[in-house]
Amino acid sequence: MNYKWIAVILMVVIYLYRMLISVLSLMSEKNPIPENVSDVYDAETYANLSPSPLVVKLEYSHPTLSQRIDAIRKLQS
Question: What single string gives the DSSP state of each residue in 30-77?
Fold first, then answer.
């Protein structure tokens, strides 16, 4: 078998796989968020871009959004 045909078949399979993943993703976006994880995606949690340093120390496991934005700006300049 010619290697060009293998490459074409692989590209088609990858395209169909990505399409399937996109369709499954769109279907899952329409489902409501389960109650046991609804507080994880709370709008109030993400509304405060620069919380108190004490709150950050006690409750955050990652840098705040404002700290991440500042780090990106430093990298870009």
Answer: TSPPPGGGTTTT-HHHHH-SS--HHHHHHH-SS--HHHHHHHHHHHH-
| Site of tokens 């108190």 | 52
Q: Tell me the pLDDT tens digit for each residue of 46-57.
A: 667 677 888 888
Tokens encoding 62: 């990652």
Alpha-carbon distance of 7 to 16, in angstroms, equals 14
Tokens of 2: 């010619």
pTM of the entire structure?
0.42
- Residue 12 structure tokens: 């088609």
Average predicted confidence (pLDDT) for the chain: 83
